[in-house]
Write a structure and sequence with these properties.
This protein is mainly α and 152 residues long. It contains six helices and two strands; from the N terminus they run H-E-E-H-H-H-H-H. The chain has a two-stranded antiparallel sheet. A hairpin with a 6-residue loop joins strand 1 and strand 2. Helix 2 packs parallel to helix 4.
Length: 152
Amino acid sequence: MGYWPSALSLVQCLATGVEWSFKTSNKASGLILQQVPESQSTRGRQHVAVAIVVALSTAAAFGFEVFQGRHVGDEPVAMILCGCVLAALTAFLRMGHPIHLGLAAMSGFPILAVIDMSLHGGHNLLPLEFAAYAVYGVIGVVAATVVNALRS
């Protein structure tokens, strides 16, 4: 009978470079975990890590907007710090390329802006807002690169 790995073991698999694939067992109704060699799993592991970072960044942006009671772009310091911590942590765990991780960690800003614009209508400062988000993305890339260089 197969078993489901815990969320912690999946995170550990991502952090150590081991990816698990799920196969349906003919003998039992459960799932069997099979280890995939690292050479095959590296690219998929990086894509999953970036997707997780984007999801966490977007969730943090929504959380900060609800907590602050106004748009995250109005007072971005907390979100920038959160994005830098997220970029640094994932770079420390070597979950992907620092540029990808840094941009993904700051992606909550523009994602939330697009959602807010589609729900409540746009405003004429949107190009300037996205220019600021590009600068925030550079800050995230710098945080991930510095931690990656320090770890080397």
